[in-house]
Amino acid sequence: MSLLSIKNLTVRFATATGAFTAVDGIDVSVDKGEVLAIVGESGSGKSVSMLAVMGLLPDTATVTADEMIFDGRDLLKMTAAERRRLIGREITMIFQEPIASLNPSFTVGFQIEEVLRLNLGLDRRAAHARALELFRAVGIPEPEVKIKAYPHQMSGGQCQRVMIAMAIATNPRLLIADEPTTALDVTIQKQILDLLMDLQERYDMALILITHDMGVVAETADRVVVQYKGRKMEEADVLTLFEAPQHPYTRALLSALPENATGDRLPTVADFMASEALQ
Questions:
Q1: Model's pTM, two decimal places?
Q2: What range(s) does the ABC transporter domain occupy (predicted)?
Q3: Phi, psi of 86 (to 5 degrees)
Q4: Is the pLDDT at 279 greater than 60, yes or no?
């Protein structure tokens, strides 16, 4: 049985001029200890589908699904209170742009300690000690000093490590990482990805990695879901996807990788789609 199973997920947003469908009938599942990559260009519905799972979409969104089961529990049938007890404890998420995700008015230590107090019921002393352990686990230097820092006093890479520490604070069974290396330089990107994979293996978490970077997918994923315009185009294990992609859009993404360049200019997804009609 899958740890998370979603069937026929649809997300629609109401607007001043009508409505639009951001996610259109997607099926997604992930097993315990598995790394699932959800890949596609910006606007393909990757983040929206996972925010629907987290219950973090705005009131303008309408979410429907035939099934949204986590560890045998139906998320769609839970009360708001039951879902709050689950989200943030057993299912956690690392958001894009870590500096924007942290509250600039509080120290990073206070923000992690708050997660520990609210979700695990730790007192202030125990929460502080656990926060220091988490800072060390994610490789933040001088944790006794950095725990007192505000987000603007830390680098982007350090803020991302804080977000990761916050996400693993409750030993979740499923971690969703939404473009975790966005806006980081190449060296820091590698460090963050290595850290995530180390933590995933150490804690035996299921990991859903949202990305548009096929290189990241090749290095990290067990299985891949390819999305385009809110729909699932293809799903396969990572080796099969790279060696024998079945859908034109998947082939378009792979053709745009630098190592697949054959001329003076990198082919784009649009170039490829012009030669293969996308149904």
A1: 0.91
A2: 4-254
A3: -90, -50
A4: no
